[in-house]
Write a structure and sequence with these properties.
alpha/beta, Rossmann fold, 5-stranded parallel sheet, two-stranded antiparallel ribbon, about 10% strand, elongated
Length: about 500
């Protein structure tokens, strides 16, 4: 049974049933107890097991305040919030104290006076771990009073106290995080003079509020996040503050496509009724982010957030859902061409270099999708003989598709293309497959052949013969192509011509 009075708490500490230790020791000892079990320290964090996580473990074992330095969308805030699980389930506090004072060693004047007056009969409260985490997003308008504290004249007037009295202090966020974790996101955005206010807590372990001749020896672990200084032009971490932060830990984007797919699958909302997302569609969506991070037209200093493939996959599924609703289909099966409809969830998530600005975000996004499709298609069917399909187009075959066409109709329209269904079935693998899955595989093959330049189409989804075969076509055929290459309206039902 948890102690209810200060006297019971003293006896519990003496008997060893209640631990009395600092926050950093608490995190360290709980981590030491958890490591041998092999349990995940940060559930839901993928790709950091051999890089970021060991460095965080080292920082905690060293009792360091630390900073996570990395580009946007690298799970920095999620990691900090997960540190709460390393705290004790609850700790004893003085009831009603704004800074969660320790009943055994109180630091604020009001709590010390209360202990003197009530002694071992003083009641105590228990604070759960989730209330011991305080997070602040750094913005230029944050003041030292917000962060550290200030004089409260109203409190002084109501209590009839002098302004110089310790009891008139108003505590800021940092003192209110006493005996817990205090996280500051985007540290460079904090004004330099506010960063100076953090010096004492990082080095000496105390803060001084305004002009009071009282120093509060806070028990707090401070953690920070920031983007690399060469990226953000909004501010910087001042050098003396960096010097006082124990460990600087660099985060990173997923190292492999499959790690990224695990994150995207975990974070994206695709749990609609009867959704079947083909594996190659998931790979295409993830590969877009990898292509963007390596593209010269995309600003590498700002990064390409992992949020991009998450939102792209959600939009891709939604476009397939819209088509299924229109056609009365029971199963939602996204196609590769649905990814192009997800461009609105892409263009706002990367910043462009000068060359990219000249081309425009939409054109850059289309190029990224095409490159992603080419990579994935080569991986799936790179060694597969696709010559019969290509020859069908080179011999003058024409295939016109609507993006909103039902699965059954798409299969019927493409049945005339020699070798296309066989190639699609190879992408599907063995076993029975629905019409929706077959239609999506056919679409994948056509888009893959276009992306690898075996057939071609305009950006407006007008498909034509590959450049190498155009010279062999008749004048009449060329006139048809000219007509097909005119810009088409950007509507929900775009036509696609394959030749």
């Amino acid at each position: 049974m948890a102690a209810k009075t200060l006297g019971e708490l003293r006896r519990a500490v003496d008997s060893g049933s209640v631990h009395h230790r600092s926050v950093k020791d608490e995190l360290r000892e709980n981590l030491i107890a958890k490591l041998p079990s092999g349990a995940s320290l940060f559930p839901g964090i993928v790709g950091y097991d051999d890089s970021v996580v060991p460095q965080i473990v080292n920082a905690i074992l060293s009792r360091h305040n630390f900073i996570l330095l990395g580009l946007r969308g690298q799970a920095k805030t999620r990691i900090l919030r997960a540190l709460v699980d390393l705290l004790d389930e609850q700790i004893p506090v003085v009831p009603g104290c704004e800074i969660h004072d320790d009943p055994l060693t109180p630091i604020c004047g009001a709590c010390r006076a209360r202990v003197r007056e009530e002694g071992d009969a003083m009641p105590i409260a228990w604070l759960p771990r989730d209330r011991r985490y305080v997070e602040k997003l750094a913005t230029p308008d944050v003041t030292i009073a917000d962060m550290i504290g200030d004089i409260d004249p109203i409190k002084a007037a109501r209590a009839g106290l002098q302004l110089s009295d310790e009891l008139t202090m108003h505590y800021g966020l940092l003192p209110r995080a006493n005996r817990g974790l205090f996280a500051i996101n985007e540290l460079p955005d904090l004004a330099g003079k506010i960063q100076v206010g953090l010096f004492n807590i990082l080095q000496e372990g105390d803060v001084q509020i305004k002009g009071y001749p009282v120093r509060l020896p806070l028990d707090v672990m401070m953690v920070f996040t920031a983007n690399p200084e060469d990226y953000t032009a909004r501010g910087k971490i001042i050098t003396p503050l960096k010097d006082r932060i124990g460990s600087e830990i660099r985060t990173h984007y997923p190292a492999t496509r499959h790690e990224g797919m695990r994150i995207t699958e975990q974070e994206s909302w695709t749990t609609r009724e009867a959704v079947d997302v083909p594996a190659y569609v998931r790979e295409v969506v993830e590969e877009i982010a990898f292509q963007a991070r390596n593209d010269q037209k995309v600003d590498k200093r700002s990064g390409v957030s992992q949020r991009m493939p998450i939102t792209v996959l959600e939009n891709t599924v939604s476009n397939a859902e819209r088509r299924a609703l229109v056609n009365g289909e029971d199963v939602i099966v996204p196609r590769v061409t649905d990814v192009f409809s997800a461009m609105p969830s892409m263009t706002g998530k990367f910043e462009l270099e000068y060359e990219g600005e000249l081309r425009g975000a939409d054109n850059v996004a289309r190029e990224l999708i095409r490159a992603a499709v080419a990579n994935v298609f080569t991986g799936w069917l790179g060694d597969t003989e696709s010559r019969p399909v290509i020859e069908w187009f080179e011999l003058g075959g024409t295939l016109q598709l609507d993006d909103n066409v039902s699965s059954a109709h798409l299969i019927e329209l493409t049945a005339q293309v020699q070798g296309l269904r066989a190639l699609a079935e190879r992408a599907l693998g063995k076993g029975a497959h629905s019409q929706g899955a077959l239609a999506a595989a056919i679409d994948f093959v056509l888009e893959g052949l276009y992306a690898t330049k075996k057939i071609s189409r305009s950006e407006e989804r007008t498909y034509s013969a590959a450049e190498a075969s155009r010279g062999r076509q008749s004048p009449a055929r060329g006139n048809i192509e000219d007509l097909m290459e005119r810009e088409m309206p950007q509507s929900g039902g775009k036509k696609r011509y394959y030749n």
